[in-house]
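Annex B.
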Amino acid sequence: MSRSAHPAGPRHADVLPEGHYSAPAADLNALDEKVWSRTVTRDADGALTVGGITVARLAEEFGTPAYFLDESDFRARCRAWADAFGPDADVFYAGKAFLSRAVVRWLTEEGLNLDVCSGGELTTALDAGMPAERIAFHGNNKTVAEIERAVTAGVGRIVLDSFQEIVRVAHIAQRHGVRQRVQIRVTVGVEAHTHEFIATAHEDQKFGIALADGQAAEAVRRALSLDGLDLIGVHSHIGSQIFDMAGFEVSARRVVQLLAEIRDEHGVELPEIDLGGGLGIAYTSDDDPREPHEIAKALSDIVTRECEAAKLRTPRISVEPGRAIVGPTAFTLYEVGTIKPLEGLRTYVSVDGGMSDNIRTALYDAEYSVALVSRTSDAEPMLVRVVGKHCESGDIVVKDAFLPADLAPGDLIAVPATGAYCRSMASNYNHALRPPVVAVRDGEARVIVRRETEEDLLRLDVG
Ligand code: LLP
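Diaminopimelate decarboxylase: predicted structure tokens.
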């Protein structure tokens, strides 16, 4: 199922029939560069290498399952986003996709800003040296303690998500004798074509303040009236894994209309708008994501046009890509444990991880690709379902895929495009030990998040 036509979700009708799967690729050994990170290739023996290191060596040194993150690809994608948007715009990497101290350092070095949405992410960012003024703090229910910490650290902006929060942040800022820079997150009423759980700009969900019924205008009125707040702009995030730019265009248009209304009512032109993240990536060869420069051009054209029409100064644009930066840069490496052919149905291939390291398939019906990576094979394609080792049948990593029929226990297989929302949503279900994240670059591999151990489990369990 292609994500460009994708919609997956009860709100959207065009879901492919049950049991649908694409035909096998012409060559199962080929690695589609759309879904694999940039330094991935096969060596002369047919084994997959990343950053010049073969998976056999990586598995031996770091074990499986494990996430391998292609650092030079990550950095290149940061630069591509920064270059595409240029000096008059800001790119905030959305840390929820995957955050670690190493990642924060790479972002800092590559000139990106950071969007955090919890005290834990804020702590990670500050600890690794991200300057506070380059951090945006998000969330629909920030605690008072989190707001205190963000304000006292001096974060560049807090994105206000409710009427209560407008007052809360103003009060805390005033208590600390500062004027906190803030944006107001508005709900623009756009139906993003993505799974219901990751669409965020339709009316019936928990985020933001609705543009409808003058709610957002009222929020602006209150924010402008409070001494502790410096309202710098308006924020909109319409959802995730989106390919169609139309939703962003409608959102940009509505946000600019609000800026014009604010100018008319209050005589102030807010200097910034943030259009959020949500740009889709290729999980399978059927997906066709946009390049950052196309996205930057589409967004800046529409904002410029709308501002000209409304006779507004063009505001500074910011965006918050998470998945589009980190998603394609990592793969998960698994070892095949058991293989169970079910006559007339498919073959179940069980790996040493599962829904604890990738919940996205079970949660969003997400699609992934998979390849045999410890060797090549000329065997016939076999229809498989890659499953984990957890105690439930929904523990599926890749729902429908083809692997060579001579697949055997002990083979290594890899699932590409697992950089976003896999480690960050990993769990300890069945007391699984969350896998490590290993950064690979120029022939060197180093652990940036270590594997959990049974001692870690026992340490939390105080007995
Ligand atoms: N900005 C805001 C305000 C957000 O809420 C999000 C994602 C982003 C930026 C980054 O979106 P991205 O570019 O990564 O799509 N767990 C789900 C995704 C949830 C995204 C939540 N917010 C998944 O695995 O697909």
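The pocket of LLP is lined by residues 94, 96-97, 115, 138, 198, 237, 240-241, 276-279, 320-324, 360, 364, 420-421, 425 (CB under 6 Å). The domain at 21-70+328-460 is CATH 2.40.37.10 (Lyase, Ornithine Decarboxylase; Chain A, domain 1). Further annotation is deferred to the next reporting cycle.
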